[in-house]
Amino acid sequence: MSETRSIAPPPSTGGRLVYAVGDIHGYAAALKALLADIAEDAEASRPAERPLLVFVGDYVDRGPDSRGAIDLVLEAEASGLFEVAALKGNHEDALLRFLEEPAYAPSWISNWGETTMISYGIVPPEPGDTAACRQAQARFAAALPDAHRAFLGRLGLCKTVGDYLFVHAGVRPGVALDAQTDRDLIWIRYDFLECDDDFGKVVVHGHTPSAGRPEVKKNRINVDTGVYFTGLLTAVRLEGESRRFIQAAV
Ligand SMILES: [Mn+2]
């Protein structure tokens, strides 16, 4: 008996030059170095169309300079060298909740936002001091530049180019790509990571760190290399069917 096998062509961007940057987590100096390498590469590549620069989210928390990280993304947008697709990570989701819900302040400060708060010049209070947390929340909201507030408010959830889907966390297996919930796109972990299904697109994501080196599977590429414990920030460069990684060290 013979078996008919269809050989699918390798995934492609359809020709577009695309860079997708993993979770930054306040490591602005590493981001600056990575963006310089990307700009140099983009210039040398002489693409027919303006290249796309995707950020898969988690700009803030953990590292020393969340404010600087957001400034660098805004600068990349303003440079006009790239079309920028800045996606929302779970850490931005938590930060937006903190900005909208003063009662969430003690939890956010103790679990998420201490270093982010410091980067905007606000001294974090003891999380047990509810009144001080609410005051700090108001001070933080006042200290946050309008451009940063607007940036947080306009983050995308996903971006599709050719055979690739870019998203922070992943997708829910068994659910059509256009029927995914915001929560899954931003927060999902193991149901997605442990699934070998063809999702319809190759999913380029971050959220769950892969220690030091990007993770490449048939159905997904993880560009979160855990900069806060490995010192390595990673981007994937995709152009047509080609794919390679660019890294910067802290
Ligand atoms: Mn992250």
What does this structure look like?
Helices cover 38% and strands 18% of the residues. The chain is built from nine helices and ten strands. With 250 residues, it is an alpha/beta fold. Helix 1 runs parallel beside helix 2. The radius of gyration is 19 Å and the shape is globular. The chain has a five-stranded mixed beta sheet with strand order 3-2-1-9-10. Strands 4-5-6-8-7 form a five-stranded mixed beta sheet, with no helix packed on it. A hairpin with a 2-residue loop joins strand 4 and strand 5. The chain has a domain of 142 residues: Metallo-dependent phosphatases (Purple Acid Phosphatase, chain A, domain 2, 4-Layer Sandwich). The model has no long low-confidence stretch (mean pLDDT 96). The structure holds manganese (II) ion.
